[in-house]
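Predict fold of Methyltransferase type 11 domain-containing protein; 269 aa.
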Amino acid sequence: MTLFDEHERSRWTGRAAAYQRSFAALCAYPAEALLDAAGVEGGHRMLDAGTGPGTVAALARARGAAVVAVDAEPSMVDTARLRVPDAEVHQAMLPHLPFTDGCFDAAVANFVINHVGDPAAAVAELCRVVRPGGRVAVTVWPHPQPPLQQLWGQIFDASGARRPAAMPRLDADKDFPRNPAGLSALLAGAGLSDVRCRTIAWTHHADPEDWWSGPANGIGALGLLMEHQPPSMITRIRHEYERLTAAYRSDDGLLALPTAALLASAAVC
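Predicted 3D structure, encoded as tokens:
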């Protein structure tokens, strides 16, 4: 396990409920397209790696697929088991999966590759457990960042919040460009063929209090930044949050935040 992996585990410990309230709906948007890209249909045996609260697993079961789901975080495993009781859910993390070679027809990882310390090894492991001719499909957040992701950085900058001296990052030799060419190359480098990659763009609608609750409850890198601030700075961050999100508030009071994701899939040889 890399230092980045250890950091990720610490950020998600016990935070399944906080994630469901804040960012789960955002990450759920590409789920159907992810399953389509992996060719998941009734009768298939599918692996959902990094299942979180079981969003993708539930949709795959609705298609009639036999679903095995894994997540590194116990609170996510518990949540997924409750949400998808007829799926097989285990605690496990990439790139070390407790499955034999070629035992799945497809494998998906929805916004998981961006949370592992060795993305290439993670993709190779997904490839290992899928039979020849099956497909692997993944999503990641792109760079340059869409407006939704940029907004939090603008809020922190406007408040004058101080960043920690060193934010956990992937080792340079493990990272890859977060664009269609970079994600496609990551899959091709694992020996996959028929690589396809596209950008999915949408507007995410969220309650302002729910959207604030993610970082406020320690979710991800934003949560780490928030935890490093004194109470007086949290007040200033909240003020800038209200000011800068005003431009995205709809008549119904919800935030309407433009965003995008990269979706890539490929066939196992």
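The chain has a mean pLDDT of 96.
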